[in-house]
Amino acid sequence: MEADFSEMRNELQSRDARWRRIQQECQQLHTELLKIREYKDMQEIQIQHQSSCAQITEQPENKTTELSLLAQSQEELNKIRNHLYQEEQSHRSEQERMKTEISALTEELHQKEITIATIMEKASLLERQLKMELEIKDKLLAKQQLLDFQYRVIKSENTHLKDMV
Question: Where does the record place it (predicted)?
């Protein structure tokens, strides 16, 4: 049983370590998301600046190029956002799965602890019963030995009386 507990403890520690790694990965993803948002903000500022420059110069070619670059960067940002969203969803589902698994293992451990307590109670009861039976048998053995001794004494007296008669 201790091996089972040790195995379950090791499993829980392993899952706890995985849980921490996932949390670290989430934190890293969150940091990356903040960086992407900063990058996006910088791009928006740059785009606004370029837009105002384009308005000042009013050169159609520059506007077309800038709009093309803006569309490309927007597509890249959308791809990055989608990727981050998928990663976050994946991590959330993994976290939920691990929470469920940990709950199940905890419940199983609790059930095993209850089983062990029940077995210990039964073992204690059996031990007390065995002690009582042993005491009774010891008393019966002492009584048997006394009767045996009395029998030998009476037999000896009978033999002595026969000899006398």
Answer: Cytoplasm
